[in-house]
Amino acid sequence: MRRVLQVLLVTLFVLTARSVAAQQSASELLALGERAYQNLDYDQAAALLRRGLARATGDTFSTGERLQALTYLGATELFRDRRDSALAAFRQIAVTDPKYRPSEIIFPPQVTGVFQEVRQQTKTVFLQVPPVTEFRAKVEHFTARLLASSPHDIAVAITLPDGKPVREVFAGSIAESLAVTWDGLTDEGEPVKSGRYLLRVTPRSAGAGRLVRQVALEIERARPDTQPWPSRPDGTSAPLHAPSGPAVRSLAGGLAAALAVVVLPSIVAQDAGGFKGRFAVAAAIGGAGIASFVAQRSRPPVDLAAGASTAAQAYRRRLEQVQKQNAQARAEVRLIVRAGAASVVELGAQ
C-alpha cells in the first residue's frame, strides 16, 4: 500500500512539473517571439511564436494573450512576404473575437490595414447567451446578442443537434450587433419539448464562407407552479341559544328586592302584624323577577349557524379561485434554457 502511494505521489509530481514547465515555456517562447519581432528578426520571431502558440492551452493562456500572439504572428508573416500565413493568423482572430482590434501604437498601418481587410472578409458573429434563462413560452422570450465581425446577411435558427430546423428566429442583415429573441415555440406554434437543441447562426451573404457559429442549449420544461387546494372549514355548527345575560340580571334584581323587603321591616312595615305583609310583598317582587327571567330566556334563539354558512361560501369562492389559477398555470409552459459554450463549425458538419 505504501509503495502504491509513493508511485501515485511521484506521478502527480511529474505531471504537475510538466504542466508548469509547459506553461512557462509557452509564455517564455511568446515573449521571446515578440522581442524578436521588435528587433526585426522576423524568421526567428515566426518560429518562436508558432512554438509558443502550439504549447499554449486554454487553461494556461488567456484569450487576450492568444489573440495578441496571433497578431504578432500575422504581422511577422506579413513582413516575411508570406501573406497567406498572415491572413490565416488574422482570420483566427476574427473568428475568435469579431470585436478585437490590433493596437495602432504597436503595429504599423500596413498590418492594421490587412487585418481590417481580413475582418471585413471573414463573415462571422460572436454569440452572447445567458447561462440560464427561464421564461414562459409564447408570452416571454429567450434573448441572445450577436456581435458581427463585419456587416453581412445571416440566418438564426433553433435546430436539433443534427441540424434539423425547429424554428427560424431571424433572417436578415447584421451590422455590428443584434439582439434576437425566441418565444420558445416551434414552427408549428407549439412549445418545444425537453431536450437538447442548438442556437445556430449561419452566414447567407455571398463570399461569407462556410463558418457557422452555434451554442448548445439544454431545454427543460418546468413543472407547473400550482397552488394547493384550501382546507375545508369545520362542518359542525354551534348550538342555538339566546343570550343569558339580561335574564340573569332580571332574576338577580327581583330576588335582591324580595330579600330587602324581608330584612328591612322598618321600611315596609313597623308592627309584628306586618310580617305577613312583608312576605307577601317579597313574594310578589321575587315572582316578578322569576317571570322576567323566564320571559327573556324564552325569546327566539340566535342562529349561530349563519357563521358556518359564511365560512362555507368563502371556502367555495377560494376553491374556485385556486382551480382557475391552477388551470391557467397548467396551460402555460415554462421553459428553462441552459446554454453551453459556443463553437464554430463548417457548413455541412454535424
**SSE order in H/E notation?**
HHHHHEEEEEEEEHHHHE
Proportion of beta-strand residues = 15-25%
Second-tier CATH architecture of the largest domain: Alpha Horseshoe
Q: Structural class, judged by helices and strands?
A: alpha+beta
CATH homolog superfamily of the largest domain: Tetratricopeptide repeat domain
Q: What's the overall geometry?
A: elongated
Supply the number of structural domains.
3
CATH class of the largest domain: Mainly Alpha
- Distance between the ends: 47 Å
Sequence stretches where pLDDT stays below 50 over 5 or more residues: 13-23, 235-242
Number of helices, where a helix is a run of at least 4 consecutive DSSP H or I residues:
9
Number of strands: 9
* CATH fold label of the largest domain: Serine Threonine Protein Phosphatase 5, Tetratricopeptide repeat
Q: What profile does the largest beta sheet have?
A: 6 strands, antiparallel
Describe the overall structure:
This protein has nine helices and nine strands. By secondary structure, the protein is an alpha+beta fold. The protein folds into three domains: 2-121, Serine Threonine Protein Phosphatase 5, Tetratricopeptide repeat (Alpha Horseshoe), CATH 1.25.40.10; 125-220 and 338-346, Sandwich (Immunoglobulin-like), CATH 2.60.40; 245-328, no CATH class. The strands form two sheets. A six-stranded antiparallel beta sheet has the order 2-9-8-7-4-5, with no helix packed on it. Strands 1-3-6 form a three-stranded antiparallel beta sheet, with no helix packed on it. A hairpin with a 5-residue loop joins β4 and β5 (165-174). The protein starts with a helix and ends with a strand. Mean pLDDT is 76; it is low at 13-23 and 235-242.
